[in-house]
Specification:
Elements (H helix, E strand, L loop, with lengths): L6 H7 L13 H9 L7 H8 L5 E10 L2 E11 L4 E5 L6 H9 L3 E9 L2 E2 L5 H6 L3 E4 L11 H7 L7 H14 L1 H4 L11 H13 L5 E5 L7 H16 L4 E5 L3 H7 L2 E6 L2 E7 H6 L1 H8 L2
Parallel strand pairs: 3-8, 3-9, 6-7, 7-8
Antiparallel strand pairs: 1-2, 1-4, 4-5, 9-10
Helix pairs in contact: 6-9, 9-10
The chain binds adenosine-5'-diphosphate and magnesium ion.
Amino acid sequence: MSEGQTPQDKKRAAGYGEGGVAPAMSVGDVAREAETMGASVSRGDILALAGPEPVLELRDLHAGYGAMEILHGIDLAIGAGKSLCIVGPNGAGKSTVLHSIFGFTKITGGTVITSGRDVTQLTPSDKLRDAKIAYILQDNSIFPDMTVEENLLMGGYLLNNQRKAHEAAEKIFAQYDRLAKRRRERAGVLSGGERRLLEISRSLIMDPNVLLVDEPSIGLEPRMIDMVFEILADLRDGHGKSIIMVEQNAKRGLEFADIGYVMVSGRVALAAAGRELLENPQVGRLFLGS
Ligand SMILES: Nc1ncnc2c1ncn2[C@@H]1O[C@H](COP(=O)(O)OP(=O)(O)O)[C@@H](O)[C@H]1O
Ligand SMILES: [Mg+2]
C-alpha cells in the first residue's frame, strides 16, 4: 500500500470500487437524489418481470426491527431459474428484504409466498427445511477450526438423517473440485474466494429452490469475484435455482441479474430488466459511477 492512499483507494484496489458511487458524489448526495426517483412501481410491473408462476413473492411487505419499520410495503416476485439483484444507497433496506424473506425481522404487514403458499410466519429453520429458501450470510460465517467437509456438513444440521447430508456433500464435492481437494483441511486456510464458495455450497446441502445472497463480491479480489458469479450463474442456469441478491457492486450485479430493483428508503423505486437498469442514465450516475 503506497503512502497517501485513502480508504476509498484501498477499497478500489480490493475490487470494491468498480461499479461504486461516482467519486464526485457523496453518499449523502446519492441518497438525496435517489429520494427523488420515487417513481411508483406497480404490482403488475413486478409480476410481469417475474414471469409466470413466481417461486417467491412478497406482497406489500412491512417489516423492521423492534418498533422501527424499515420496509414500507415491498412487492417482489421472481420465477424459477431467474435472478434478481437489489441495488440502492446504503441503509435503503436491501439486506432487510433478505432478512425478512428468511424470517429474521418483525413482519408487521403483508405476506411472503413460495410457490403459492403463505410462509410469512415460518421460522428461519422452517424456511430452509420446508420452504426451500436458503440464506447465505454476508458475514464470514465459516468455522475456521473445522475442516472444509465438517463446515459443509453443517449445512445439513436440520436433517434427521445424516446420511442424506453426506450424500449431498459428496455431490457438492463432485461438482467443486476446488473444495474436494481440500476437504480434510482446516477451513481457516482457505482463500477468501474459496470460503465464499464453501458458504454457498453449504447452503446447497438442503437443496433450496431460492438462494438469498447478500453482497457476494464483498472483500474479494476481481478474479475471485468472477469465480463466485460463475458459480451463481451455473446454479441459476444449470440447476434452476432462483437467486435474490444484494450487491453494492451494482454494475456486476445488474449485469448478472435478469431483474433489477432499485430500493430507496424502504421502498422499490425502480424495477426493470437488469440490462435495462444498467442503461438507465440516473441509475448510472447514482450507482454505477458513470
Ligand atoms: N439488526 C438491526 N437492528 C436494528 N436496525 C437495523 C438492523 N439491521 C439494519 N438496521 C437498520 O435498518 C436500515 C436498513 O438497513 P439495511 O437493510 O442493512 O440497509 P442496506 O442493506 O440497504 O444497506 C438501516 O437504517 C439500519 O440501521
Ligand atoms: Mg446491506
